[in-house]
Write a structure and sequence with these properties.
The protein is an alpha/beta fold and about 150 residues long. It has one domain: Rossmann fold (3-Layer(aba) Sandwich). Helix content is about 30%, strand content about 25%. It is built from four helices and six strands. Strand 5 and strand 6 form a beta hairpin. It is globular and about 50 Å long. The two termini are about 25 Å apart.
Length: about 150
């Protein structure tokens, strides 16, 4: 399984990012999202499923991939690690899952997957952290494949 954590791109100023008044992406944010989407397309991921927070800035980020998007309320700004892992069905899903969501949950999940314990790590806006899991010598391992920032 490939699990890609994608933080939404830069949002416009104003509004309440946690509420329905989420202003969406800024011009710079849209450019960031497009750059990251292009990088993701170049990776030729197998069987990609895109799951997004319902917040406008996350949905707009995900839309730059030009793939079908499934909106998941559990990926919203109040998400926790368990919400992200449950939505992704990590590590049992076959193919690639791209989670478009928010800090601090994305950073905490990255820390858990890489270091074995949640910590307040930061994923930059429009940045992705790409993880895979594999079994080697009867042991399940998590592999960090790439980190990409626009």
């Amino acid at each position: 399984m490939d699990l890609i954590l994608w933080r939404h791109a830069e949002a416009k100023e104003g509004g309440d990012p946690a509420a329905a008044t989420d202003p969406g992406l800024s011009k710079r944010g849209l450019q960031q999202a497009r750059q990251t989407a292009e990088w993701l397309r170049l990776q030729r991921l197998p069987k990609v499923t895109v799951l997004s927070s319902p917040n406008k800035r996350a949905v707009q980020t995900a839309q730059t991939l030009s793939l079908p998007i499934q909106i998941r309320t559990q990926l919203g700004v109040d998400a926790g690690i368990a919400d992200l892992l449950g939505a992704a069905n990590w590590p049992d899903h076959s193919g690639a899952i791209i989670l478009v969501s928010h800090q601090p949950a994305l950073g905490r999940l990255a820390a858990l997957l890489l270091a074995g314990a949640p910590a307040d790590w930061t994923i930059k806006k429009a940045g992705v952290w790409w993880f895979s899991n594999r079994v080697r010598h009867d042991e399940t391992q998590t592999v960090l494949r790439a980190v990409h920032n626009p």
